[in-house]
Records
---
Amino acid sequence: MGNCCAALKAMDLDKVFAYSTVKIVKIQDRRLGITHKLFLLGIFIYVFGWTLIHNKRYLLRETPVGTVRMSLQKPAHPSNPEDLPYCLTADHGSTNGFENWPCRYWDETLVEYPTTEEYAMHVASRITAYNYTLPADCYDWSRPSCAFESNGKNDTFFIADIENYTFMMDHTMYAVNLGIQRNAQNLSGELVDTDGHVMTGSNIQVGVRDKLDIMSIDALLKAAGIDSLDSASGASNTKHDTDRSSKRFAGIILLVIIEYSNVNTFHTSHISYTVKVRHIKNTEFKGEQLQYAKYPGDFLKKDRHGIRIIIQQSGTIGEFDFQTMLLSLVSGLGLMAVATVVVDFAALSIMPQREAYKDYKYLVTADFSDVRDGTVTIDSYDTDYKPKSSYAGKGKDEESTPILENRGGRAGSVNRSV
C-alpha cells in the first residue's frame, strides 16, 4: 500500500493530464500545398457542382401518393373476323402454332370485370363458360354428397379486336407533407417503352394538358415490349401446356408505373410524369364470374383470362428548404477535413522529409509544474526551441541535408560536401 502511495506521489500530473491543442504550421513545400489544394478543389466541385446543383440536395423531397380512375371503350370500327388471324374461321385454324377459337364482339361493360377496382382493371381476352347443375334432390343442401355437376355444355371464345379497345386513365398526385397536389390534366407527361423512348401515335394521348390520358390496349402492350398476344405465354401455372398456350389464351399481367417528378428542373413548380409499362413475365391471369340461372340449382361460371392492368404511382416531388440545404452543405464541407488528414498523413508518413515535418508539427511545452514552483520562468523558456531531429536525408549532390533544430524557421549549422 505504501509503495502505491509513493508511486502516485511521484507521478507528474502535468504530464499525465497534458492537454493537446491545435497548432498551425505552414510547411513551405509545393508538393504538399498543390496536393491539398487539389483535394479542396475536388471537394468544392463535389459539394456545389454535384451535390447542390446536379442532385439538387437543397430540396426537401417526398414520394407522392395518388388516386386513379380507369375506364375502357370498345373500338368505334371493329375489325372483321376474317382480318383477325386468331379468330377461328374456315381459313384460320391456328396462329403461330396456337389453336384458334371463335371470336365474340363484346362491349366494354362485358369485357371489363369487375367494373370497379381500385388501382386495377381486368380486360378479358378469352372466356370459357361452364354450366353447372345441382341434382334435383339437393336443392336444400341437406346431404354432404350434394355437389354441382357440369352438364358438359362448355363454351370457349376470344374477345375480338381486344387490342383496339381504348384505355382511359385519369390520375392525381398529392405530396402530403409538402402540400402539393396536381391532376394529370394540369401536368405534362409521356409514355415510354422499355428502352426509355417516348412513344407517340394516333392511338396515344398522354400528357396533353386539359385532356385525359387515353391509349389503346395495343399501345400498352407495345410499351411493355409485347409485340403480339399470340406469342407463347410461358406461364408455368397454367393448366395447359405452356407451349400450346398463347398470351391471349392464358392472360398476362401488366404493371403500369406513373412516376411524378419536379426535381429534374430548377423550376419546382413544373411537375411532369412518365408512364412506364412492365410485363410480369411467365404469369397468367384469370378471374372467375358466377351467374345463377336458377338459384340454387343452375349457374354459369365464366373463367375470364385476359390482361390484368395494375397501376402504381410513385416518383419524387421536392420543394426548396433552407434547413435541407444547410445540412447538405455542412455534411459536404466536412469532407474538407478529410483533405487535411490525407495530406498530413502523406507529410508525416510517406514524404522523404517526414521527420523534419514532424519536428515542425509537434511541440512539447515546458513542464508548468516547474513554472508554478518558480524553477523556470515563462520569459526564460524558448518557445521556438525544438530538440534536434534525427532526420538527415541525403540530396542529389550532398552527403547530408540541413538538420532542422528550431521552430522559428532557423536552421542549425550544416556540414556539406560536394
---
Amino acid sequence: MAAAPLQKRQSSIEAAADLALRKHGRCVTWTDIQAARRVVRSDANVFRTPLLADAGRRLGVSTSIDRLDLKLENTQYTGSFKIRGLANQMQNLPKDVRDGSRRVVTMSGGNYGRSFAFLLCKQNKLKATVVMPEFAPLDRVQLIESYGATVERVPNSEIQKTVERHVSEDNMFFLHPYDDNNLIAGHGSCGLEIVDACPDVDVVVVCCGGGGILSGVAAAVKQATLVPGLPVFGRDIHVYGVEPEGAPKMHQSLQDGRPATCFNAKSIATGLSPPIAGDLTLEHVQTFVEDVVLVTDDELVMAMKALYTCGQVVEPSGAAAVAALLANKIPDVEGKTVVAVVTGGNVSPADLAKFVG
C-alpha cells in the first residue's frame, strides 16, 4: 500500500525540478535523466563505476584541495563512459533500425565507435558504419571492425560530409556521438552516481570533446541540487570542462556564442578532437557549466603518468580533468571537495609506453 504514495512523491519531485528548469530550452530535464538512469541501470553492459577516494596526494595535486576523488569511467567494459549514452540511444532507436532493415552510421575518433560497434553490431547484430578521422589510432580501427562494423577513414574536414552523404544517398540513420539528448541524458547517469557517492562534492571536473559527457554530468549534478530530499539539495556545485589547447572547440564556442569548428586539431587527445562542437551540447554548457579550460599535451602526459602511479591506465583524453587540476587551471578549489572524471582507458601498450615510459 505504501508504493503508490512513494511513487506520487517521486513524480512530484521530478515535476518540481522540471518546472524549475523549463526556461532552459532544449536541455535535458530531470525526468529525462532519471529515465535514462533506469535504462543504464538495466543494461548489463554498463557498470556503476567506482569512486577512488582521496587520490589527490598520490597524484600530486595542490594540497589546497581538501579532497580529490576520481570517478573511474576507464573501468567500463568498453573502456570509457561512452557506453552510458549509447545504452540510452539504443533504447530510443526507430523500428526500422532495431529490426535490422536500415543501416546506422556514426562518426568517431575511437571510443564512441568502439561502444557503438560493441552494442549495435556485436550485441544486437545490427548493420553499422563508423566514419573515423585518418589520424584515429589503428588499434581502435581494428577493434571496431572486429565487432562487425564497417570503418571508413577520411580527412577530418570530410567526416561530417561523409556522414551526411550516407544519410541522404544511402538512407542510413545517423546516431550522433555527442549532440543528442538521449545520449546526454544517458551520460547524466554518471553525474547522478557522483552526487550519490560524494554528496559533499563542491567541484566536478570533466573532459570535453564534442561536449556529451560534460553536458550530461553537468545537467545531472546541477539539477540534483534543485531536488528537495536529495543530499545535494541547495548546494552550489561548480562544474568545469577541460579541452586540449590543440582542439579548443567548446572553449571557442563559448566565446563566439555558436558551435565552433576545428578541422586542423593538433593534440594527442584524439578523442577530444571532433571537427565541430555540438549545438545541443553548447546550450547545455552555457546553461550548466562555469567554464571550459585548456590544457597542453605535455600536461596531459603528466596526468597520465600521475594516474599510472595510482594504478590507473588512462588514455590522453581520459586524463584531461586530472591534467587541469595538476596544472592549477581550475579556480576556487581551495578547501573544496573535488571530483575529477577519468573518462577513458583505451590506450595501446605502445602508446602507453611512449607517454608514460
---
Amino acid sequence: FGILGLFAVGALLMRGAGCTINDMIDRDIDGRVFRTKDRPIARGAVSMFNALTFLGLQLSGALLILLQLNPESIFVGSCCLGLVFTYPLFKRFTYWPQLMLGATLNWGALLGYTAVNSFSFPICVPLYFA
C-alpha cells in the first residue's frame, strides 16, 4: 500500500465516520428537511444500532491504519477525534460550521507531515492554516 495508500484509505474512513456521526446526530432534523429527508437514518432505513455498528467499523479501520504510523503520528491522529465528533454540533451553535469542518479536514496535513517527518510547529502550524 505504502504511506499514500494508507492516507487515502484513512481519509476515506474518517470522512465517512464524520458523515455517519453527522447523520446520527441530525436524524430528527434531516427527516424534516427536503434536501436530507431521504438519508438512510433519517428515513428509518438504517437503525441507530446499525449506524453505530457501522461507525464502529469505520473507526476501527481508521485505527488500524493509524497504528501503522510512527508513535508521534498516532498521537497527532488521535487528537483530531474531538473535532470529528463535534463538527455536527457546530451547525446548531454557530453560523460558521464550515470553519470547524475546515479545521477538522486540515488535520490531515498535520498528520501527513508528522508521518514522514517529525512534528515541527514552525512548519506544521502554517501548513494547518494554509
---
Amino acid sequence: MADYEELQKKLSKYGQEHLLGFWTRLSESDRRCLTSELLGLDLRHIVKSFDDCTEDLKQAGETLDDQLEPLPKEVLGSVTKSDAETLNSYRTEGLKAIGTGKVAVLLLAGGQGTRLGVTYPKGMYDVGLPSHKTLFHLQAQRLLKVQELARSHSSDKDCVIPWYIMMSKQTKEATQQYFQKHDYFGLQPQNVVMFEQSTIPCMTFDGKIILETPSSCAKAPDGNGGLYNALSKAKLLDDFNARGIEYLHVYCVDNVLVQIADPVFIGFCISRGAACGVKVVEKKLPSEPVGVICKLNGKYHVAEYSEISPKTAEKQDDEGKLVFNAGGIANHFFTVDFMKTIVQEKESELRYHVAKKKIPYCNNAGQLVKPSEVNGIKMEKFIFDIFQFTSSFAVWEVLREDEFSPLKNGNDAATDNPATCRAALMDLHRRWILKSGGKFAQEDNARNSDIPSQNENGKESPIVCEISPLVSYSGEGLEDIVKGKSLTSPVVLWHSTEAHQP
C-alpha cells in the first residue's frame, strides 16, 4: 500500500493535498479505504476536465446567434406531415428490423427521485394510475407488446428486443432488486442487461475535490453522456455484435409517454440511412427553456436556452412557426456502427458541462454538512454532444401530447409532476378509445371530444382511463373491445394475463 509521502506527492502535483487533511485522525481501515480511492483517481484527467469546464463557464450566457443555423429540411420528418401510407411504411420497416433481431433499447436510468421526495430510483415511481404501475413496469410492458407486434416479421417466433439499462452507483442495487422482485415483468432476465455508469469527483469552484467524509471523496454520476465510457467498460459493444444488434433506441426513464422501441421512429431513421436520429417536439413558446436541435458552425448541435437571444428565439418562418423550434426530449436512435466510432475514437473529445449544485461535504470537524446554498460543481457529459460527429442525421417531430410528459418534480411544482404525467397518459388513452369508436357516458357532452391535453383550468379530466400496454402499444387493436360501446369512468382495460389488483 502506498505510504503517506507517496500519496502527498501525487496529490500535491495537482493541488489536491487537502484530501489527506484527516489522515492522522483516521483508523487503519479508513486509511486503506482512502488510499485505495485516491490511487484510483485519474487526477490529471479530473483537473484538466475542471479547467475545461471553468473556461466554458466563462463563456456561459454568451449567445451563439451568429453561429446557429436551423435544421436543413432534408433531415426533417414529422408525424403530422406524413400521410398514412408513409407512416405505415416506416412502421413496417421498423417492425422488420425488430422482428429480425436487429434492434435493442437502451434506458438511461441513473436518476434518483430526490426532487419527487423519494430516495429510490425514479423508474420505481408510481404516478398514481389506477393500476399503480411504475415507470419501469409500464416500459417493460410496452417492450413486451412491441415484441408481440414484430413477431409477424420474424422468422423466430420468440422475437426479442434486448433491454440495456444504465444505472448509477446510487440506483444500481435498488433497480436490480426491484426487477428481481417482479420477475423482470415477464421479460427474460438474460435479455435485461444492467450496467453501471462511472462517477467523477465533485469540485469546489476553485478546483478542489470535495471530501464527503474524512476518508472518502464526494462523487456524482458523469451524466447521460457517460454512456459511451460505460459501454466500453462493460464490453457491451461485444454483446451487441454477439446478438446481431444493428440499431439502438436510447431514451431517459422519466418520460411516462415514451414509446419504447418505437417502430415508426426506428423505421424513419433506417429509411433515411441515418447514423444518428433524434425525436423532437415543437417548442411551445420562444421562451420555453428546452434545448433546441440545430446546427452550430455547420455541425449538428443542441443549443441551450441561454445560448439563444430572445430575438433569435422568436424568429418565424414563412408558415409562422419558430425557426428554432425543435425541442429535444432525450429520445435517440443510433446505429451500432456509429456507436462503435464514438466509443472507440471520439469519446475522449467530449467535454464535461458544469452543473452547480448543493454538495454535502465534510467540515473541519469531520462532520457531514448538507449546504442550503450552491457550494460546488458536478461535471457531466451530455449524450447529445456526439451529434457533431455525424453528417447522416435524422429528426422526427412528434406530438407532445402523444409522446412527451416528463416526471421531473414533486406535486408542489406546477409542471412535470406526477399529476401532469398521470393526466397526460390517461388523456392519451381516452383519445385512443374515442378514435376506436368508443364513447364515455357522462352528463357534459361537450367534454366527450378528442381533446389532447388537460382542461383549460389545469385540472385533470374527470374521465379516468387507463389501458394496459399489453392490450395496446399505440392505440391499435382497440376497436373489437370498445367500438360502439358507452364506457363509464373509471375505465381500466387489463390484459387477460394480468391480475387486476393494483
